[in-house]
Design a protein that fits this description.
Rossmann fold; single chain; 11 helices; 38% helix; two-stranded parallel ribbon; 350 residues; alpha/beta
Length: 350
């Protein structure tokens, strides 16, 4: 394996300890790598309810740095407070949340309790311990089934199509209200559809719950993990009848979180709460994503067609000008790169 993937030179940066919640999860683990490579010290909290505890070991192997994970529930205020007592955090990146759209439709109370109680606890501790920088993992789901495309940060929210999306809308409202009375700086990152895996092949999307996201379903089906693969909805008024999404490589998303922290630390904020879209700006249909995977992997997918799935929006893709101009962030990986790294991870992990 290419040794360049392991323990790359750490760039000089203000040495700051950052708390990453959900650090064993998909986006959190990739972000820890980018943070460490940019000179930050990182501590994780993840109860591993939908992630693998071994992931943090892989992150340590890639970075050459031992990463501590506290395997506790963020809804347990006293347990989380002990972590703050033991560490002096300059910033927090809050990923940890339940995120399955179909499950949120089936079990809404589970999502409202977990996603909002954990956020409330972290915001209380941010104030109590004087943490200056807070980055919130939001989602394009806050825009609902908008027809204003591509969406900008000023695009008006529509009714959320799922309880998951609603928890992100409420979460943003809570943070906006808190920012008005706080000395801390908050950044809301609304990202679109993270896919792909780290180039080393050591980490990727590896949930413990039922897999509903499109790319793990594609790669898992191709690898023989699943007996079937269905496209939910082929009668949408789109160019080929399937949903349109803005797929973006997880390492590009990860780098945006590092840049958001650096932006806040450098006091470049224009207000106590800034909002940024994170997407490529390209709308890709489900069928186009499948074609890219088939091209990269050389594997033909014998998928089936199924009715539309409750909670799915028809089309969503980003205007990312603000993140490019203000954060200096520029996604560099192509759709084929996303498919190639996801497939490499699947083959290694199967």
């Amino acid at each position: 394996m290419n040794n360049s993937f392991f323990a790359p030179p750490i760039k000089k940066n203000m040495q700051s300890k950052i708390l990453v919640t959900g650090g064993c999860g998909y986006i959190g683990s990739h972000t820890i790598i980018d943070l460490v490579q940019n000179g930050f010290e990182v501590v994780s909290i993840d109860n591993c309810s939908n992630s693998q505890p071994e992931t943090i070991k892989m992150v340590s192997q890639i970075t050459g740095k031992t990463i501590i994970n506290y395997q506790i529930d963020l809804c347990d205020y006293e347990a989380v407070k002990k972590v703050f007592d033991e560490n002096n955090f300059a910033g927090i990146i809050h990923f940890a949340a339940f995120k399955s759209v179909p499950e949120s439709v089936e079990q809404p109370l589970k999502y409202y309790h977990n996603n909002l109680s954990s956020l409330s606890n972290l915001l209380k501790l941010t104030e109590e311990f004087g943490v200056k920088h807070f980055v919130f993992s939001s989602s394009c789901s806050v825009y609902g089934n908008t027809t204003d495309l591509p969406v900008t940060e000023a695009t008006e929210f529509q009714k959320a199509e799922s309880p998951y999306g609603h928890t992100k809308q409420i979460g943003e409202e809570i943070i906006l209200a808190q920012a008005k009375v706080s000395d801390s700086k908050y950044i809301l990152l609304r990202y679109f559809n993270p896919v792909g895996a780290h180039e080393s092949g050591l980490i990727g999307e590896n949930p413990t719950m039922v897999v509903t996201a499109i790319l793990p379903r594609i790669t898992g089906f191709a690898a023989g993990k699943f007996s079937s693969f269905s496209i939910f909805g082929t009668d949408y008024p789109t160019r080929d009848g399937t949903c349109v999404r803005d797929y973006i490589h997880v390492m590009d998303i990860a780098n945006a979180h590092t840049k958001a922290l650096q932006f806040s630390i450098a006091e470049n904020n224009k207000s106590n709460c800034e909002v940024f879209n994170l997407g490529t700006g390209n709308g890709v249909t489900v069928l186009e994503a499948i074609e890219s995977f088939e091209r990269v992997s050389g594997t033909k997918l014998n998928y089936t067609k199924a009715p539309r799935r409750e909670g799915d929006v028809m089309s969503i893709y980003a205007n990312n000008d603000k993140a490019k101009q203000r954060l200096g962030w520029n996604p560099s990986r192509t759709l084929d790169d996303m498919m190639r790294t996801a497939w490499a991870w699947e083959q290694r992990n199967k």
